[in-house]
Design brief:
Layout lengths: L2 H22 L8 H6 L6 H12 L2 H14 L4 H9 L3 H16 L4 H8 L3 H33 L6 H51 L5 H10 L11 H10 L7 H9 L4 H16 L1 H14 L9 H9 L2 H38 L6 H23 L6 H12 L3 H9 L5 H20 L11 H19 L5 H35 L1
């Protein structure tokens, strides 16, 4: 049996397993929007952990990250550091979002922001901005899936058909299972990803280097590719602002939706502290493979394929099949979450919000499932017309979604935030991202990421316009800020009571 056939069989078995997990973990007999989109707010800490880290790491983790390290070296460090800092945003927004979602039934960002600012227009704009920037990220994931099938079969499965296979498998289990199917498949995929990337990195390093000590690799990189181990001073502005843009990961709609889904806000605190360990630990073997590729396979036209090419050259077909199944897991775990989030945004924030007649859950689910098919098809078509690196597309998408953050932080923490300020900042930030990405790439001679330019314009106008417009309604402030203050008081009192009980126990003993 030829090597590529063995690899394809392993990947096919994995696809069947994922479909089975999606079907058997669905909420059987439940047809509510809350069940389909946020899992009935019943996801436990174990599953919430892995669905978060698996959603965080998409095809860029296996393919885009390796490609970026291969071509640019440690310029990719901005993304790696975001894996440490970005989850800490959960401390800032995760807990209050959970409490507000539980009390008022919110399921999307537009739900929360539209209610706080008492604006159907803001809810609509947030939804449109989210969908616009979700599609490029989806496009990047489908590109990743196409590369995986094409590279491991030596081109026998064309890039287009690889993209189609990924499309069919993912929409299959999302349509059948909803959020719980997504969360449980993410859990399987998250465990697979971390185990298999370490196996791949160790195997390739041992095979090529003769030892797992990669100091020789770094010495060779320094001698032959020294530019890839340094960040030129002129690159620091875009480096640091790309890092800032990647804060958008924690408020990216698929990630944000997980704040609503957990059964207890304590899970979010645990997630904020522990997820960076997984996220940063993942990139160590990816870096080893990318640097070995730069030494032994220089000049690739498609850098995102360095991992599968190194696998097929230096490992067995079985190993290649297993690791590329892990790469496919990374791709699927983000694609399913993005499609699911896009469906919830369109159904809840656009269709249901703008409908003149009440929308039943049954009708909403029909619209939502149809949306999944259509949006995935759009991303599939776009994937055939882009030659950009997966990481570049992903960074642009995250920078765009970052524009929701000022209005969100205002709704949670700033009582002076107004409808006019939020809307002005959001629209201006969105325009600035597009303008600095495609038209005016170096405003005032400064090379910053488009997401950073957008955020700068956004925050500035949000604050100025909010201060110049009338204060929000006091009842609305009480509904949000007053409720969160009472939650914090109750929490502090419970903690104090628990502390007193422990002190009495110590004294009594």
């Amino acid at each position: 049996m030829e090597n590529w056939v063995q690899i394809l069989i392993i990947i096919s078995i994995y696809c069947v397993i994922v479909l089975a997990v999606g079907v058997f973990t669905r909420d059987k007999g439940k047809t509510s929007l809350e069940s389909y989109y946020v899992g009935g707010r019943s996801i436990g800490p174990f599953v919430s952990y892995f669905t978060y880290v698996a959603t965080f790491h998409s095809s860029f983790a296996f393919l885009g990250a390796a490609g970026m390290l291969y071509t640019s070296g440690i310029n990719f460090f901005a993304t790696m550091t975001s894996c440490i800092v970005s989850p800490l945003m959960i401390y800032l927004i995760g807990r209050p979002v959970w409490y507000l979602g539980k009390k008022y039934g919110f399921m999307t960002q537009g739900d929360l922001l539209g209610d706080y600012y008492q604006s159907r227009l803001i809810r609509t704009v947030v939804a449109i901005v989210s969908l616009i920037f979700l599609i490029p990220y989806l496009q990047a994931q489908i590109i990743g899936g196409g590369h995986i099938f094409s590279s491991v079969t030596g081109g026998r499965i064309p890039f287009l058909w690889g993209c189609v296979i990924l499309y069919v498998v993912i929409i299959g289990y999302i349509l059948l299972g909803g959020f719980k199917a997504v969360a449980w498949t993410d859990t399987i995929q998250g465990i697979m990803m971390i185990i298999l990337i370490w196996i791949a990195g160790s195997t390739i390093l041992g095979k090529v280097n003769g030892t797992l000590d990669w100091s020789n690799v770094m010495h060779t990189m320094a001698a032959e590719h020294g530019d890839k181990l340094l960040i030129p001073i002129e690159r620091w502005p875009v480096f640091m602002t790309t890092f800032l843009s990647l804060f958008g990961i924690s408020i990216y709609p698929p990630t944000f939706q997980r704040f609503y889904s957990v059964s207890n806000p304590k899970s979010l605190k645990w997630l904020a502290v522990t997820s960076p360990i997984y996220l940063i630990f993942f990139y160590v073997p990816v870096m080893a493979v990318a640097f070995l590729g730069a030494i032994h396979m220089p000049g690739l036209e498609a850098p995102d394929q360095i991992l599968p090419l190194m696998l097929t050259k230096y490992t067995t077909p079985t190993m290649t099949g297993l690791v590329m199944a892990g790469a496919l897991a990374a791709t699927m775990s983000s694609t399913d979450s993005q499609l699911h989030a896009a469906s919830s945004i369109f159904t809840i924030d656009l269709y249901k919000n703008l409908s003149k007649k009440p929308v039943t859950d049954q009708k909403g689910l029909l619209v939502g499932k149809s949306t999944i098919v259509v949006i995935a098809l759009i991303a599939l078509l776009l994937s055939q017309f882009s030659s950009q690196l997966i990481m570049a597309i992903s960074a642009f998408a995250l920078g765009g979604c970052l524009q929701i953050m000022p209005a969100l932080v205002g709704a949670l923490y700033w009582k002076r935030a107004t409808r006019q300020g939020a809307l002005t900042g959001l629209v201006a930030g969105f325009i600035a991202v597009l303008a600095t990405q495609f038209i005016w790439k170096t405003p005032f001679g400064l090379t910053l990421s488009s997401g950073a330019w957008g955020l700068l314009v956004n925050v500035l106008l949000f604050v100025i316009v909010s201060l110049l417009t009338p204060k929000p309604d006091s009842a609305q402030i009480e509904k949000f800020h007053g409720y969160l203050a009472s939650v914090n008081r109750d929490f502090d009192e419970a903690q104090a009571s628990e502390s007193r009980k422990k002190q009495k126990g110590v004294i009594a003993s």
